[in-house]
Amino acid sequence: MRVRRQPGPMDAARGPAPQPAGSRRTAPAGRGSRWSWVWRLGTWLLAAGCFYLVYTRIDAAAGREGRTALEYLAVFFGDADWTAWLALMIPYSVFFFLVDSHATWRVVRWFNAPALKLGGVLPIRASAYILSLVNEQVGKGAMSLYLLRRYEVPGWKALSSMIFLGLLEIYQLLLFSGIGVAANFQLVGEASTILPLDVILPVVMAVAVVYLPLHIAYFRTELFGANGLRGLREKPLLTAFRQARPVHYLLVVLFKAPNLIGAVVVYYFALQLFNVNVGFGQLLAFLPVIFLAAALPLPFHAGALLLWTVLFPDYPQVAAFSFVMHTFFVLFNAAIGTLFLPRANRELFA
Predict the structure, then answer these.
(1) Beta strands of 40-174 (E only): which ranges?
(2) Domain ranges in the chain?
(3) Are 338 and 76 in contact (CB under 8 A)?
(4) Pick from 138, 159, 119: nearest CA to 344
(5) pLDDT tens figures, 5-61
(6) N or C: at which end does the chain have fewer Cβ atoms within 10 angstroms?
(7) ∠ CA(135), CA(125), CA(116), 5° rounding?
(8) In the Cβ-directed half-sphere of 81, how many Cα atoms lie within 13 Å?
(9) Are 201 and 289 in contact (CB under 8 A)?
(10) Mean pLDDT, to the nearest integer, of 247-263?
(11) Chain centroid to CA 5: how far?
């Protein structure tokens, strides 16, 4: 009896084996390609729907003042204090880069390269911001390539650390949003005119609280020992979860917390500079939720733009404000990356 060998990590690195002409294995690839196009079309249609809803809200607000939507936005942006806004955004962008690099460095040291120094992470993390303008996943791949070339860390192992970081970023947003919702639940109820946020947010946070200890127990113990459940735990891409102790989860949240706290402070003062009076408690409750919506795979973070108008219905123009904030942030971070690019090229390709 012929036994078929199971593919391993080296097979993935080499790519798929050549198939004979007329092989039936070409059919699934065709179906995958079609589904890929369906997915892309669907995300763009959803994004277009979000932008349309945002436009209708802005247009309605403009109509109440006897203006067109463009005139309404021109007045909104024309009255802003752009000098003070730049003085606020530039230092925060640099601060974000340093905090983000430090958290990444800690995780990589724990699970991949104990000898790695923070100075080695800075140019790679900065250059990843440039790549992220094109594709977020390509940006994450820069760190994997660096670890492979300098420390001979397999790509799947480095990627597992990035997945670990990604999960903790979500939990950080849920944690701070939970604190904000608990402290300002009345505001959540007032914002629940379109969506039942006073039900959705507590349920999501309760599920997250229940899931995390089960997640840690699954990867750290034999609590779930059935063969079918054990298989997921043994996946190479989840190596970091097997290595991580509960204290690692806590430390990553603490390392990244300054960025989120800083974002709430920066958005609060930036909104004041745009003559939008939103309370600090509202931002603490809602901004992490908006950042979660920004993680949805929609072009131009359309889900987050729509959520701004849902959460702050009295100020539909904040969707345009959010678009400007995000665009400046990613472009300035990419500019930071260009400063480190020569060194990053030496580290990656020398």
Answers:
(1) none
(2) 44-349
(3) no
(4) 119
(5) 444 433 433 444 444 444 444 444 455 567 878 888 888 898 898 889 899 999 999
(6) N
(7) 135
(8) 12
(9) yes
(10) 94
(11) 37
